[in-house]
Every structure is written in C-alpha cells, then in structure tokens.
Amino acid sequence: MKVKVTVKDLIGRSRVLAGRAGLDREVKSPQVSVAELSSPSSWRSIASSMLHIPPRQSSYLCSLPKKERKRLVAALVRHKPACIVLTGGAVCRELLEGPTSARIPVLKTGNLPRLSRQLTQSLAPRISLHGVLVEVFGLGTLILGESAIGKSEAALDLVLRGHRLVADDMVMIEKADGVIIGSAAELGAELLQIRGLGVVNVRALYGDSATAETSRIGLVVELEEWKKGHNYSLVGLRERRYKLLNVNLPYLKLPVRPGRNMATLIEVAARNQMLKDKGIFTARELDRRIKKRLTG
Hints:
Elements: E1 5-6, H1 7-10, E2 15-18, E3 26-27, E4 32-34, E5 50-53, H2 55-63, H3 66-78, E6 83-86, H4 94-101, E7 106-108, H5 112-122, E8 126-136, E9 139-145, H6 151-160, E10 164-176, E11 179-184, E12 191-194, E13 198-201, H7 202-206, E14 214-225, E15 240-244, E16 247-256, H8 262-277, H9 282-295
Parallel strand pairs: 4-5, 5-6, 6-7, 9-14, 14-16
Antiparallel strand pairs: 1-3, 2-7, 8-9, 8-10, 10-11, 11-14, 12-13, 15-16
Helix pairs in contact: 3-4, 6-8
C-alpha cells in the first residue's frame, strides 16, 4: 500500500523558516539526504527528499560572494527537494528567498535523528490483514483463517493464559529495519469480537498487561477446517514460510476439529518456534536419530 507523506506531516517541533506555502509537498524518500554544496554532482538523488544542510555547509554558503550564493541556491532548488532542513550555523538570505520562490519549505530542527526516525516510520511499507495478533511468550503470533474458524476465541483463551492481545479482526502490518511489526487499527485497539458475546474490551476486563500496542511478528499460524482424508504431518520436518512485505516468516497450518484445544496448540507452536530460533529443531533431530539407527 503506497503511503503519501507530506512535509507538513513531519514537521513536529521543527520551525518553518521559509516556504510555508510548500508544506503540502510530498516526501518520497525514506532517507534524509545531505547536501555537499561544494559538490553539485552529489545532488542527483535529492529530488522529493528531505535535504539536510549541516551547519558547516550553511556557513560555507554564507562565506561565498552574493552572486555565487544565488547561483548555488538556484541550482539546488532546481533539483526539487521536498524541503530543506537546517540544524544550525549561519543562514543567509538567499537560502530563504530561493526556496520560498520555489515553494520549498525551509525547516530548522534541533533533533534531526527524531525527524529521520519519523520519516522512516512514515514511509515504511504497510498492509492490512484479516486476522488476529497475539503476543505468546513474547513472540508475535499472527493467527489467520476463514471467518468463524475460531481465531478470536483462540485469542481470548490465550489472553486468559496470560498472553497479550495486540489486534483482532484487522491487523496493520508494516516493515521496519527488515522486520515485520503488527498493530491494531486505530478503532480496534484493545477490542476482541466474539460471536454470540459481542465486542469486549480486553484491557478493561483483564488489565493493561493483557494487551500490547505493537509486536514483532515471528510466527504465522493458519487455522483451517479439518479435511477428511487430508495427510497432515505428524513430524513437522518440512519448514514452511509465509511471505509478508517480502519477508519470509515461519508458517504452519493447524486443522480445527471438535475436541482440539487450539489455544494450547498455538501456545506449543510458539514455544517450538522459539526453540527453532535458538537452533533447536526437534523434528530434524528425530530424523537424524532415525537415519543413524537405520544405517548403524
């Protein structure tokens, strides 16, 4: 899902020194570019990005003759950065007047790292999925499956066992620093929908420790109706993956059948995945022992 982020969305506590008319300009790059004013060849990738002019570069610009300052700023503006960010140093008139004419905002901030983090988070790829996200033993476990298969009921059972609900029905997914993070839609946080019971507020019922705002997803579990005659694995030697935002996550299918406690199975699946993350693969070890006996 493409996310549109404007300069106005990112201002925060930054001061707008000039170019206020351009606050609706779109920022397309997730990285803050740095301008090396003495090297125009390094400006090729600054279009639609937040352009940082460090104090030493700003002072360098102010040290140039007026005619050279105007020429340099005009050349910089022609590359169409989304905005210019200053963090200190001298500020010459040309650095304010040129961008103003081109409707390019000039901002001043005392916290560039915060601005950079906000930019990265705002432009992170995002999607939404129909499912439930529960943090089981600290492992974000995404539960998928057809409507009415029992996802929310399993989540409620997990909450009663001391685990934490992150999202029900609609899970917002985003990628940050190569990992997948899940959270609830704004109106769905803390809420759980149970057929026949209605909507319940998990935090109000069970306290703050029963919910989490976000969780890194480390396991995907899909619930499906038990299919008669289907060959379900009893060993689990095959490692399956579920791709979310081009990241492959551990994945398994659990057949739903009367008498099976899905919360218990999900809990065991989470524990087993935590072992795998430590390099302990029970199925592989069993396979190794069997092969050793057969060949020994």
